[in-house]
Write a structure and sequence with these properties.
Layout (H helix, E strand, L loop, with lengths): L1 H21 L3 H9 L2 H18 L3 H44 L1
Helix pairs in contact: 2-3
Length: 102
């Protein structure tokens, strides 16, 4: 029993590298999973068209969009923090002036 488990574990370790190289062949995996050659060819063709037109793959577009959104959120947060501190500062100055006028 231990021998079979050890053999299975070693086999999985050595074959795990095979999965990484097949991940580069997206359409072949699509055909293997779905059996739909048209879907795989359309996916591959549209990916090539996007890459040719924009110079970036669809995955790169997604990652740049997510990165832009994170930067935008950070800018909004920084601006909000600045405005809140400025409002507090101005309220403090106004209250001090009111005290001096009274």
């Amino acid at each position: 029993m231990i021998r079979k488990l050890l053999l299975l574990l070693i086999t999985c370790i050595f074959l795990s590298a095979c999965a990484q190289s097949t991940a580069l062949i997206g359409p072949a995996i699509t055909v293997g999973n779905t059996g739909n050659i048209m879907q795989a060819s359309f996916s591959y063709g549209s990916n090539l068209a996007v890459k040719e037109a924009t110079g970036m793959t669809p995955g790169e577009h997604v990652s740049s969009y997510v990165g832009d959104r994170k930067e935008e959120k950070k800018l909004k947060k920084d601006l909000l923090t600045y405005l809140e501190s400025h409002v507090k500062y101005m309220r403090k100055k106004i209250s001090q002036k009111k005290k001096h006028l009274n």
